[in-house]
Write a structure and sequence with these properties.
- The mean pLDDT is 95.
- The protein has a four-stranded parallel β-sheet with strand order 2-1-3-4, sandwiched between helices.
- It contains four helices and four strands.
- The chain is globular and about 50 Å long.
- With 124 residues, it is an alpha/beta fold.
Length: 124
């Protein structure tokens, strides 16, 4: 069974983490044909860390997990921290395929999103 884990940085501000949790719920509702399991996890500053999110997928029956970094830039967290954490989890779950998708900022759809966002109603 295929799973998706949306990974965000995490914040000391609970409302920020809640926004990502809500986004993951919306994602789950929109990609259930591809991913039977969708969870959220954070790099730091939150209750659900990346190993917890991966473990939750395994407990729910995942045999393949895609990690989706919800980051705009390929900074240290994307290039080093997340891959290192995933490598540690791979050792813990050798029978589970775990891969990391490109971070959101690398998406070819980003340009259209930026233009579309700029053309929406402005906030004062």
């Amino acid at each position: 069974m295929k799973a998706l884990v949306l990974i965000a940085h995490g914040s000391r501000r609970k409302q920020s983490n809640d926004e990502v949790i809500l986004l993951a719920e919306k994602l789950k509702n929109n990609c259930s044909e591809c991913y039977k399991i969708v969870n959220v996890a954070f790099l730091e500053f939150a209750d659900i860390l990346i190993p917890d999110g991966i473990n939750k997928c395994v407990v729910e029956g995942a045999t393949s997990i895609v990690i989706l970094p919800y980051f705009l830039n390929s900074g240290k967290h994307v290039v080093e921290d997340i891959p290192n954490i995933v490598r540690t989890c791979l050792a813990q779950y050798p029978d589970i395929e775990i891969s990391i998708a490109p971070h959101i900022g690398a998406s070819p759809l980003m340009m259209n999103l930026l233009i579309s966002s700029a053309n929406t109603e402005k906030f004062a």
